[in-house]
Amino acid sequence: MAAILQTHSLGISFGGLKAVQDLNITLNEGDLVGLIGPNGAGKTTVFNLLTGMYLPTTGDIIFKGESIVGLKPYEIAAKGITRTFQNIRLFGELTVLENVLIARHLHVPYNMLHGIFRLGKYYQGEKEMREEALELLKIMNLAHKAEERAKNLPYGEQRRLEIARALATQPALLLLDEPAAGMNPQETSELMELIGFIRDKFNLTILLIEHDMHLVMNICERIYVLDYGINIAHGTPEEIKNNPRVIEAYLGEGA
Amino acid sequence: MKWMLKNWLTKENLTATVLLLVLMFGVQTLYSAELISPFVMLNLIIIAINIILAVSLNLVVGFTGQFSIGHAGFMALGAYASAIMTLNFNAPFIVSLLVGAVVAGIGGILIGIPTLRLKGDYLAIATLGLAEIIRGVITNIDYLGGAYGLMGITQRTNWLWAFGSMVVTVIVIKNFVQSSHGRACISVRENEIAAEAMGINTTRYKVLAFTMGSFFAGIGGALLAHYITFIEPNAFNFLKSFDILVMVVLGGQGSITGSVVAAIVLTLISTFLQSLAELRLIIYAIILILVMLFRPQGLLGTHELSFKLFQRKRGVSHGSHSADA
To answer: Which residue from A83, A105, A125 is facing B197, i.e. has the nearest CB?
Structure first.
């Protein structure tokens, strides 16, 4: 299987703090991979590096065969990597539908002059965009909330809207940052099914950060474990569960 | 073509067109018949110009969320460029207007690219400073009349020009904010980091909004120059920028009709208070303080007035966000 994303000794330091060091990750097309580790291990920092929000101090990131280091976040999104945010970052005052429409802008079928002068292409393009956005909302079970303001949604629905919005950019690689945070067990198990479903439906590769071990162990095919910015283990859920270094990182020495 | 018209021919659009045409030619006819006094006409034209200025600044401040307070600088560019076209090149009015708008728009690009990296207060100070620089430079160019300004500009702005330009400005900006490109600008206001992560080139859309805002400010300046026939650098100082900003904030940031209403109300208030001399400034200030105390989101917030029985609407297509965001 072809590798879609590879990092080569990726690292970043903030002053004297090495937040991520010497990280080598390989994601193959269609993978569903977990990234776990204790709080402050550098997981979200890895996402920030992959999406261009931070510039790495060392190493390289190869996406679909070319280096994406130094590209702006919007350029990386256009190449096909999008993410959700751990601390939800929706366009809160806008409606659910508008949140998804904005992410569709990457594929807007008309130009600015069509919009300003209301040419035929504008009406047709807007109609298409709305249909596509509604389709995504239907998949994420949010269609009935399309006209609701995003900030008024319950927490679990805001997380699902983050995923819908990320999908609207038509990514090849989707990065999910704690998608189940704040969800109850019922919602979490629905989310698990949903993640598997969207991967197959949209031919996605997914890398996800999650603290809910039940979710990670059940849906991820492989797992990378970070501790203090260092990749301490890598393997199948079964291997990770029994890895002494992982147990030590989570529970402390002598556990 | 047919298909296009079908989309456009809604009840709402037809009503609006008829109303606007009646207003445009009705007022002009009444004025010709001397049923509207020159004093009233003066105020009507100033209102139209103020609407152009407020709506164009709202695109930058209200919709894109970039707190710029240098709008008068771009007005000055438009006023001077158009006045020079008329005085020295004898250009037809439409050419003068467009040259004024384009010069202001180019000024917007040149100033926007470096300053829009700044955020919030820093951006406000930088735009304020650059507008003052524009004024300072104009004051020191003899070709532009220096501190005395330019006199004897042919009076070309009449009700038809002012009202027509206002309608074009409002329609262009309304159509823009209701398009995908306008939504990209609004996403910058809502959450710049998320917008960038969703593939929006935020710098580009900030500069775009800033340039469009400056372009229309240039038209406002050009109309003003060709109405009062006399311009001086001091007419475009930071107090003028604040006047426009007050209209935007009072009407509601992110509401086009809010800016229109505020421009009308504030222009009328300052006219009526004129007889009170110095007391005027105090009363004007008290009105503003009261509005901000009791309605901090502005008169209309992010709502838009529409023809559908003035029913209130919500959503990007009609701008939505509260002033405290």
So the answer is: A83
